[in-house]
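Tip: read the tokens left to right.
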């Protein structure tokens, strides 16, 4: 079954074409990126697996045009990977927020679309863009079944003690204000893959997954189920991130708002776009820039790294306690996969938990699935490259096959 996976942002579309024979047997045919949608100088970069990469610059006024360009690229006689659009048997979409409507991926129907639209106010930067992909495929190829896969679904297994806030309960009842968590497709994939690599049973193992990138979150996965995660009602909570503050005393925000005469929207913009690593350093949200500045003696860059690394380590310990044990720690995401310093900081001096880190294996390691602990280590640590698109394709395959 040929499946097209779409990850639509506000001005971009990431895509992959995957041939799914079964949930465990698949072949990537092509991937690509549409950029600058609605902005002058649109670009589509198409990368077939066994053919030369192709890049086209053209005006891309909206997502419908962007997806039409994807259709043209994947069926092109020279650089395409399928003969016609009839070869596509399903389209899978990433959707950021499923609220507590969706505990798993779902076949697109009018009712499903209405529920996603109702959640737009919980994810105003993401859900509208995700929906544009669904609308565009409906317009261009109305007969292709579509499936939506939610960043929040994997965390719907959290118990109330993990997701209820200490606010008046009426706000949960009226507005569904609670912890939802994000990066669920990534946490699920790397927990499963990490268990396979470490020789653990995913259905019984206690795993802490660290998805560390410009946006970052940690999850406690106990017996194959998410039981807690660091992001909350929005993706701002938890870890220090590129431009997001992570956990902070709400009283500090009301104090700053009063002193600086800032509105709610201004505070929201600050904690999302001006805080985090960028806010502490005043330099950059890119960890490569921050690490270079720290190496040159910049004290605020060094401080940002200390805060950034420390919070990851703190959550690993907290989730080990919450689960009553630990079998595996997994690192993934742009920083988690490519920053040996982060992994060494988090895993050092953890022998009391049974984790014996191997700094020689870790040194210089980037983007390769690897066990990072010594053979004698009771608790394992691993670097796992995430593949959210494959999770989406697998869920899409299963749903469409069951529909038949």
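Filled-in amino acids:
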């Amino acid at each position: 079954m040929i499946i097209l996976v779409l990850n639509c942002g506000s001005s971009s579309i990431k895509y992959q074409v995957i041939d799914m024979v079964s949930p465990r047997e698949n072949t990537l045919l092509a991937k690509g990126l549409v950029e600058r949608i609605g902005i002058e100088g649109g670009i589509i970069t198409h990368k077939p697996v066994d053919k030369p990469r192709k890049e086209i610059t053209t005006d891309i006024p909206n997502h419908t045009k962007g997806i039409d360009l994807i259709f043209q690229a994947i069926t092109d006689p020279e650089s395409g990977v399928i003969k016609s659009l009839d070869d596509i048997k399903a389209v899978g979409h990433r959707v950021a927020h499923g609220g507590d409507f969706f505990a798993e991926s779902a076949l697109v129907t009018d009712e499903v679309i209405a529920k996603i639209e109702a959640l737009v106010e919980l994810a105003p930067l993401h859900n509208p863009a995700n929906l544009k992909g669904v609308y565009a495929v409906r317009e261009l190829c109305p007969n292709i079944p579509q499936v939506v896969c939610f960043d929040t679904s994997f965390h719907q297994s959290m118990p109330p003690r993990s997701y209820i806030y200490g606010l008046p309960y009426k706000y949960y009842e009226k507005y569904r204000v609670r912890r939802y968590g994000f990066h669920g497709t990534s946490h699920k994939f790397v927990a499963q893959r990490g268990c396979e690599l470490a020789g653990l049973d995913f259905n019984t193992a206690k795993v802490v997954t660290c998805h560390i990138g410009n946006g970052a979150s940690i999850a406690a996965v106990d017996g194959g189920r998410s039981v807690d995660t660091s992001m909350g009602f929005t993706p701002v909570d938890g870890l220090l991130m590129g431009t997001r503050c992570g956990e902070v005393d709400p009283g500090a925000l009301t104090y700053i708002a009063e002193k600086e005469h800032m509105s709610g929207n201004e505070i929201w913009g600050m904690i999302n776009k001006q805080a985090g690593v960028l806010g502490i350093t005043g330099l950059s949200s890119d960890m490569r820039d921050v690490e270079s500045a720290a190496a040159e003696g910049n004290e605020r860059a060094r401080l940002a790294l200390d805060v950034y690394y420390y919070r990851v380590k703190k959550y690993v310990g907290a989730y080990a306690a919450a689960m009553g044990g630990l079998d595996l720690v997994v690192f993934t995401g742009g920083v988690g996969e490519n920053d040996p310093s982060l992994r060494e900081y988090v895993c050092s001096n953890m022998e009391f938990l049974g984790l014996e880190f191997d700094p020689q294996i870790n040194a210089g390691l980037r983007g390769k699935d690897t066990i990072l602990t010594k053979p004698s280590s009771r608790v394992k640590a691993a670097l796992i490259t995430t593949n959210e698109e494959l999770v989406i394709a697998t869920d899409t395959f299963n749903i469409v096959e069951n529909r038949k």
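The chain has 15 helices and 14 strands. The longest helix spans residues 299-323.
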